[in-house]
Each structure stands twice: as structure tokens, then as C-alpha cells.
Description:
The structure holds 3 protein chains of 3 kinds. By secondary structure, chain A is mainly α. Helices cover 70% and strands 0% of the residues of chain A. Chain C has a single domain, classed as Rossmann fold (3-Layer(aba) Sandwich). In chain C, the strands form 2 sheets. A 6-stranded mixed sheet of chain C has the order 6-7-8-3-9-10, sandwiched between helices. Chain C has a 4-stranded antiparallel sheet with strand order 2-1-4-5. The longest helix of chain C has 18 residues. The mean pLDDT of chain C is 86. Classes of the chains: A mainly alpha, B mainly alpha, C alpha/beta. Chains A and B meet through helix 5, helix 6, helix 9 and helix 11 of A and helix 1, helix 6, helix 7, helix 11 and helix 12 of B.
Amino acid sequence: MTYTARVGIAVLVAVVAVGLTSPLGAWQAALEVSPDIAGQGPSPAHWLGTDHLGRDVFARLQLAAGAFAGPGLLACAVALVLAVPLAAVTAYRGGVVGSATRFGFTSLAAIPRFVLVLLVLSIYGDSSVTLALVAGVSYVPMLGEAVFERIERLRGEEYVLASQAHGLSGARILWVHLVWAACGRLIGRHLLALFGFYLVLETTLSYIGGFGVQEPTPSWGNMLVFEWGRRSVFDPALLAPGLALWLTLAATGWAAEALGEVEHG
Amino acid sequence: MLALSLVAVATAVQLLLWAAPGDPIDLLPNGEELREQLSVEWGLDQPIAVRVLSYLAQASTGNLGISLAYRPGMPVIDVLLQPALTSLGLLSGAVVLSLAWGTALAVWTRGQRRQSRRLVRVLSVAPVFLLAHIGVHGINELTFSLIEAGNIARPAWFALPAEASLVRSTLAIVLLAVGSGSLAEIHQEVEQALLTIRRSGFVDAARSRGEPTTLLIARHLLIPVASLAAARTGFLLGGLVILEKVLLINGAGAILWQAALLRDVPVALGITLFSAATVCLARLAADAVRIGLDPRLRGGSR
Amino acid sequence: MADSLQLSALKIEAGSQTLVTGVDLQLARGEICALVGPSGSGKSLTARAMLGLVEIAPGVTRGTLEVMIDGTIHSPEMTGDSRARRKAFAKVRGAVIGYLPQDAMSALDPLRTVGRQVALTARRAGRDQGPTHWLNLAGLQPSVANRYPHELSGGMAQRVTIAQALARGSHFLLADEPTTGLDPAIRRPLLDELRRVADEGVGVLWITHDLRAITGIANRVLVMSEGQIVESTTPDQLAGGEVESSAARRLIEATRRIAAGRLG
């Protein structure tokens, strides 16, 4: 495993761990308004300073990881459950159903994901569960198409035919050999990309406002706007959420290196 | 095939609409006032299959329904036409620019320069709204301090993004071409294609005959680049929706935000269909390029 | 002095590994010199070094190459990757030394008709004749000009590369196993074609491992083994088994075994 892949995984695990545990913690510093310490710069007590309501920026940064960690994982689970079995079974069986499924994936992949998300928000309204579900669903065509293509290509290959000749059951060949062994890394890379997409989606919505996480609950997106106009863009309190977002996204890419392709020979 | 894809998309989004618990009018903030009008227009007394089919039939004639909240009473097609053209212009600019930069980078790195590749990836991974945020406010701050210091007069485009549509559009195209991983993805894909072509027998043969290979490689590179352009179109469209909102550009993307906020479902549906059609057309164009260039895809040997 | 190609003391290293060492080789116009040896013995590498096309990442090529044409001596630097070296080799490649690849099908541009490709080569070489002239010389019908490479058979594709080499007007030709992978029935006519090309005054270095085909085609034979030339002999001596080196004996043995296997 490359050095950057390790760093990527470490960052991701840390961010997700903070995000999943943060709702359990007592986040007084992140939520309580204390005018007497408002707008301070970095200090030993407040590592990244405080915002203009006197809330600790570093604490808010950690609490904000909760805005995407849980829903992001939910989105991954939704995409995994909806796309992989459908794509795997139809690709393995082939025939008209296979072609139809594939055509469906390709057609639906023509809807830009962000557009689909906004359409669904317009129909069903805004909640973080809706957002996670629609992010997962919007990724189904892409993940499904990738898995379908891979399994369809491998279906006729010799080792599959040989396992069939050895009398292994179709289900075992499909799930163990084709899905797990041959598509595992591919699926992993797509799920990392989806997690990154959810992160971008959540921060974008709360940055623009109207949707997503709203004040006073922090998100890396709304933290960027909250101090806007009061400080320089390059102030640590404003830079920190942006850099955290940037680093986490880069980490999803680095972590994907660990799932790089091993050529089947 | 293209038409069939669009039918599949329209059917899917319609089913999404009718899958709402109760009926979608319940979900709309101003649903009850419009209930009578909408029941007739959306055919709520009909079975779902009939509703979907009648929407498809109407959509095929360009009738996408009536806006509910964004421009109440106005046909969706009229609401969308002009802004959609603005968006299409920005989109094609971003597609061309990202391909040009990605290809130029790929030619420069050519399988070497690992560090440069890493740098491109890290820079490009930033989401477009973050780049826009830093870009716009960074430019504003810098300009403001220069004005304050008396170094320059107040420029006409100050302050972004409210003023000067040309600067805004340029910024949108540039950020779209770079951000959210666009540049890195295209760079990587073009580089891979370039390496494959450079290693191929016909390039080696041309080289061994002492002939220039640049044009030969360029022509072969057009095929994967065309496919890539089509594949990236949908992705860039998503980014454009965000940038239009952040940079205050009056395109279809900005309207989609309004429609989503106001729960104007017909407008949101119309924009979804528009964007899917754009992606399908881009795929069609890419196929045309590939078939035009590659005789093996034309089939039917003589 | 007659036109000639002279390669001396060629040495190719990749890292700590020596792939080719001490190879000396002369080639006169009008002759076919067969270069035989087991696979991995450095035959193709030697040929590609003469075109300046050895691409092993840390690879180092040494030696001297001198080609005398009409009283002009071309001697591109073999070591390094300087601009001057590339320029010197660009003058030699094609115009002086041509190359026939093993896999002719992949050596043709799949996006262009055969005629376009041959015409392009001829035009770049400053020749007036159209593509059908060169295709005809290589034993192909004029109608082939309108076909795309994927519509050709393997033998036809190889003839097209010969037509391209003729159109390019190379004085020397390095043929890297041009008949490997082709149907046995069409190998002989292709080799006869190669002989005709040599009789027109082209010096051919023919890399092959098909010892049985050498008689009647090649004028002389070089045996290569483990990166060195171990024996210089004639086709008749080789056919009669009168060889000195153990490498050559092993090659003859292997050929006999294959032939016996085929017949039995």
C-alpha cells in the first residue's frame, strides 16, 4: 500500500470517527453563544479562535463532521444494496433482462446527479435522510453500470467456465468469484467516490443555504458563510472548514489508491 | 436509442413523482390552493400508467406543463428556453476548456512526473463552490485593498459576483473545468489513452519510417477524447447548477435552485429532462465522431 | 567504395543486466543476411538499436553505427538521448534503414485506407508514383488501396508494409520475423517477395527462427545467442548441420524435432 493511501485512509477513518461520535458529545463550546469571547483569533484555549457569537471554531469543525459522516455512510449502503445485486444477477444471467437493465442504467446515468438531487428535494422536501437516500439512489446507475460491465465481461472467461465445469453452484461463482473477488475493489472505489460526492453535496447545500444543515448546527459549508464579511477569507476561522473539506476529499482519492486495480491474468 | 433513453428518463422521474406518499399535491406548500387545477392537469383521477404516458406525449410536443410557483401560470418551456441557452453556452465552454487543459497536461506528463500528477489531483479535487468562494472573495479582497491604498481606480466589475457578467461567466467556465476533480479525471484518462496510442504498433511503425507522428497520435486521441467529453458532460452540468447559484448567473441551474426551494415540481422536472437530453445529445455527438473516424465501427466489410 | 552498413561493438544494458554485447555486423546492398537465434537472444533489440528505438527505461546503448550511402556517411550517436542524436537518427530512419515489423496488422493505421497510408509515405519520401504502383510492386491488387487494415488478411497486411518500405525507398531493411504468425502456405511467397526486394538493391537483415526457410532466400547466416553473435555461416552449411557453436546445434536440433513432430 502506498504512503498516500495510508494517509488517506487514516484521515478518512479519523474524520468519520469524529463525525459518528460527535452527536454523542456535549458540545457546549460549539453551540453556546458567549458574546464576551466573540471574534477572537487562535489561542491555546480556542485553537482556531471563536466566531462572532463566541463559539469555538475548532469544536464546531468537529461537530460539523457529523453532518455528513452518518448520512454519507447511509448513502453508500443504499447504493450498494440497490445497485450491486441487481447489476450482478442481470449481468450474470444476460439475455433480454440483462440488456434492459443495462439500458436502464445507461439511460438514467444521463441525469446529472446534482440535478436529480434538487428535483427530489423539490418533490419530497428537505431532510438529511431524504438527502442520503437520494444521493445513494442517484449513484445507482453509475455503480450498476460499472459492475454490470465487469461481470458481463468476466462471465465468459475461462476461470468462470472452469468453475462451472467443476460443479460449483451458480450463486457461489457469482457472489464469491465474480462480485467479491473481481468487483470488490471496483465497488470500493465507487463507494469512496460516493462518500466524497455526499460530502460535496452536503457542504454545497448548506453553503448556498435553504437546504441541508442550518444554523446553529454547524456544517463545513455553512461555517464558510457564517463569518463572511466580518473577516478576511484567509482568516483561520474561515479557512479551516474549507481546508478540512479539501483534505477529506483528497483523502477519499488517496484511499482509493489502496483499492487500485489488480489485473486479472 | 436516444429517444428511448429520454423516454426511460422521463418515465423514471415521473414514477419518482407519483411514488410520493399520498399524492404530490399534499407535499406542495401551496398544494391545496392549486388542488383543483393540478388534479386536472396532472390527471390525478387517472391510473399512474396513463399519467406517465400522457406526460410523455405532452413532453414530446414540447409541452412541459405550467410553472406553479417560480413564474406561476407560465408554460415551463418559456421559463426555461432562454436560461437553458445561457447554461448550454457555459457548459460547452467548460467541456472544451477542461478537455484542452487535460490533454495539454497529459501531453506534458506522459506517464512521468508523478509529483505534478499528484499536485493536479489535489488542486482539482476541491469542490467548485469552495473554489468559487475562495476565488470570488479573494479577488474582491485583493481589489478592495488595492482601491483603498489608492493603487487602482474602482474597476467596473467590482464587486464580484454581482457585477460584470463576462468576468462571472469566465470564472464559471474556468472553475468548472478545474474543480470537483474534473481536471484530474480528464488528465488521467487522456494520459492513459495517450500512452496506449504511443505504444501501439502503427505509431512505432511510423516512427521507424522516420515520419512525424504528432498528427497520427492526435487523430487517434480524438476517439477517446470524444467519449470522455460525453461522459463528463453530465458531471459538469451538475457543477454548473452550483456555480450559477454561487456566481449569480441567470441560467437554468439557478432556476432549478429556485424551483427546488419553492417546490415548483413542473419546472424542476423540465430542467431534469433538459439536462438529460443534453447528456444524451453529447453521447450521440461522441458516437458520431467515433464512427466517423473509425472504419471498424462502421461495420460491413466490403 | 560500395554502399554498406556497419555496426560495431554494439552493447545494450538495462540496469545491471547486459542484453546485447560485442555485436559486429556488416550488410551490403543486394544481400539478405539472416539473423537466427532463440527468442530472447537479442535479435530484435539489435535491429531496433540500429533505428535508435531501444526503449528500456534505464537502458544504455553503446557502439557505433556507420552507414555509407552514395559516398555520404551517416553515423548517428548511439548513446544517450540528446536532441542531436534524435535528429541524426531521424535522418537515418526510413530514408536509409527501413523496418518490417513482425505484426504487420498492428503496424498499419486502423483509421486510414491502405492506399492513403502508402501514398502518404511515398509523398513524404518525395516519390511521384501513386499507391497502386507500390502495392503492385509488393504483389497486391490495386483494389487493395481502398481497403482498411481490418479488412486485410495477415499476409496482405505484411505485403502492405513491404509496399510502404518500397515507397519509402530505404537502402537497408531490417525485417523482424516478418512471417511469424502467418499461415505456412503464404510464408514462402512473402519470402520470395523479400528476395526480389533484395535483388533490386536493398540490403536486408532478416531476423527469423525458421531455419528451414533460410535456404534459397538468405545469402549468409549469423547465429545469435545470449546477446552475442556466436557464428557466421552459410545457409548450405546450416542445412547440412556443419556448424561449430553449440547454440547453432541446439537450434538445428529444435528445428528437426518440430519438423519430425509435424510429419509424425
